[in-house]
Write a structure and sequence with these properties.
CATH topology: Cytochrome Bc1 Complex, Chain D, domain 2
Number of strands: 0
Structural class: mainly alpha
CATH superfamily: Cytochrome c-like domain
Helix content: 55-70%
Number of domains: 1
Distance between the termini: 84 Å
Largest sheet: none
Order of helices and strands: HHHHHHH
Number of helices: 7
Length: 132
């Protein structure tokens, strides 16, 4: 009887493994939940008058480098994430938001995010050299 149990266990583990990978969160979803959902909500609808909606947002669905710059540098009370997220993490996060909640944003590449970070650093150095 024990000999017949092993094939059944093997088949079960294959099915369970396939089910768990099917249930895995899309790349960036966990980062969104950990870093963004407190303000922009799990639904991406934001909080009217306090935190803008990401669902249906022209910024979210527009130029990926612009969106990356906003997340890297912050904007209008939004914190900057340039010191908290790597380019790979930010790429996954942005692509999640750009396709979640019915958004139709084009994918952002790792190169786009790296370029936005480089522009951000160059802009910070230039501002640091200006007289007050």
């Amino acid at each position: 009887m024990l000999r017949h149990a092993f094939p059944a266990l093997a088949a079960f583990s294959l099915v369970a493994g396939a089910a768990s990978s099917a249930l895995a969160a899309p790349p960036g979803q966990t980062l969104y939940a950990d870093n963004c959902s407190a303000c922009h909500q799990v639904t991406g609808k934001g909080v009217k008058g306090a935190f803008p909606a990401l669902a249906g947002s022209p910024l979210v669905q527009g130029d990926g480098k612009t969106m990356a710059g906003v997340v890297l540098n912050g904007r209008a009370g939004m914190p900057a994430f340039k010191d908290d997220l790597s380019d790979a993490e930010l790429t996954g996060l942005l692509n999640y938001v750009r396709t979640a909640w019915g958004n139709k944003g084009k994918p952002v590449s790792f190169a786009d995010v790296s370029s936005a970070r480089a522009q951000s650093k160059a802009g910070a150095k230039a501002r640091g050299l200006q007289a007050h």
